[in-house]
Every structure is written in structure tokens, then in C-alpha cells.
């Protein structure tokens, strides 16, 4: 089957913008809706984190008062954007939660917005007056870990997709995961999908 795989940077507002544009392009290429959209989240955790977007906006306004509302919105929407960037493009499509039942640090989940602000502060080196989003994006991408992800999670992701595709006789789907899971290295989710004969069209953001 045909699989579009987005390899994204979870913290990067420019990656989110690029992903949405790519989803529009995918829609234009296909006459039918995807059979599923797979996201690197557990549904319950996604819901809790996405709900913290307004709070992150407040934190951003306090930390960088020179930011305009468009910049604040662009950054705050990065919280769990892997789970809903397709909305308004592909509606009424089943979401396959690849991290379903993952054991998480509940305190970290509850404080996700605060932790994200800390990450952004570590990668911000200007006063927000000029090209704040672009500069932040470049710094985040420079710091992205180059080590391979935990293969156990890649096995789980691939197995979840294999099972769903077989059960539902899917023709095509979209997968949104961190860029390392979408790499060509042996053992990654992408590698396992291709080994099984699936046609993977991969775009890194």
C-alpha cells in the first residue's frame, strides 16, 4: 500500500507549518481520503497536552512581550500538533494512535507547556524583534538528536500499522512521527514498513 510519512521536529513551529502545507498537497494528489492518519501520541496524553496551548500562549506573552499574536499562536500550536494538523484538510478520518498505552511521566504531561517553554528558551538567542520564528526553528533543528530512536517503539509503531492495514484492507495512509522514526536506518519504523513491501513517500521537515 501507499504510505506518506512525515518526519517532523516535535518542537518546531516551522515544521508544523510545512506539515500542513504537505497535507494539502497530498489531498490534491489523491481522489479519496486516507484510510487512516497515524500519530506519534497516545490519545489521552494528546488531549491533555493539546489543552495546554492557551496556557503556553500566556507563558510566551510573559516571556517575550514583543511577540505578536501570530507568532504566539504559531508556537503554542506546536503542542501535540502531530495529532490534529490534519483537521480541516482530512476530516472524519480515523486516527491511529501509535503510542497507545505508553507509560508516561504524569507530572511531565501535566507540566508540558512549562517544559516546552524551557526548551524554547534554551534555543532562543534573539530579542524577538526580527525573524523570531525562523531563528528559533533553525536552532531547534540544529540541536535535534542524531541518535537512533529506541527500536522497541519503532517495532510497536510498525506492528500497529501492519495490524490495522491488514484488518481494514487499507489502500493508503498518512503517518506523522519524529524524523528519526522516518529515517532509512535499519530497524526504524520506516525501514520495517518498506521491508514489508509498502511504498513509503517520506518528507522530512
Task: Explain the overall architecture.
By secondary structure, the protein is α/β, with parallel strands linked by helices. The chain is 47% helix and 13% strand. It has 9 helices and 5 strands. The chain has a 5-stranded parallel β-sheet with strand order 3-2-4-1-5, sandwiched between helices. α3 crosses α4. It is globular and about 50 Å long. The model has no long low-confidence stretch (mean pLDDT 93).
How large is the count of helical segments? Answer: 9
Order of helices and strands: EHEHHHEHHHHEHE
What average pLDDT do the residues reach? 93
Shape: globular
Poorly predicted spans: none
Q: How would you describe this structure in keywords?
A:
5-stranded parallel β-sheet; single chain; 205 residues; 5 strands; alpha/beta; 9 helices
Q: What topology emerges from the helices and strands here?
A:
Layout: E1 2-8, H1 13-29, E2 37-39, H2 43-50, H3 53-63, H4 69-76, E3 95-97, H5 106-110, H6 112-122, H7 132-142, H8 151-168, E4 172-178, H9 189-195, E5 199-204
Parallel strand pairs: 1-4, 1-5, 2-3, 2-4
Helix pairs in contact: 3-4, 3-6, 8-9
Amino acid at each position: 500500500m501507499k504510505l506518506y510519512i512525515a518526519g517532523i521536529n516535535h518542537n518546531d513551529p516551522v515544521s508544523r507549518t510545512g506539515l500542513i502545507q504537505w497535507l494539502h498537497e497530498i489531498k490534491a494528489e489523491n481522489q479519496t481520503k486516507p484510510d487512516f492518519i497515524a500519530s506519534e501520541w497516545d490519545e489521552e496524553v494528546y488531549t491533555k497536552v493539546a489543552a495546554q496551548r492557551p496556557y503556553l500562549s500566556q507563558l510566551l506573552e510573559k516571556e517575550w512581550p514583543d511577540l505578536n499574536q501570530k507568532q504566539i499562536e504559531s508556537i503554542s500550536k506546536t503542542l501535540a500538533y502531530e495529532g490534529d494538523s490534519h483537521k480541516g484538510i482530512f476530516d472524519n478520518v480515523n486516527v491511529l494512535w501509535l503510542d497507545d498505552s505508553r507509560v508516561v511521566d504524569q507530572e511531565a504531561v501535566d507540566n508540558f507547556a512549562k517544559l516546552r517553554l524551557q526548551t524554547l528558551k534554551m534555543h532562543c538567542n534573539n530579542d524577538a524583534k526580527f525573524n523570531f520564528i525562523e531563528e528559533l526553528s533553525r536552532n531547534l533543528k540544529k540541536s535535534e538528536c542524531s541518535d537512533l530512536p529506541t527500536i522497541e517503539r519503532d517495532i510497536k509503531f510498525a506492528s500497529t500499522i501492519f495490524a490495522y492495514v491488514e484488518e481494514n484492507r487499507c489502500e493508503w495512509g498518512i503517518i506523522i512521527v519524529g524524523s528519526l522514526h522516518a529515517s532509512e536506518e535499519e530497524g526504524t519504523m520506516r525501514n520495517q514498513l518498506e521491508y514489508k513491501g509498502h511504498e513509503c513517500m517520506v518528507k522530512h521537515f
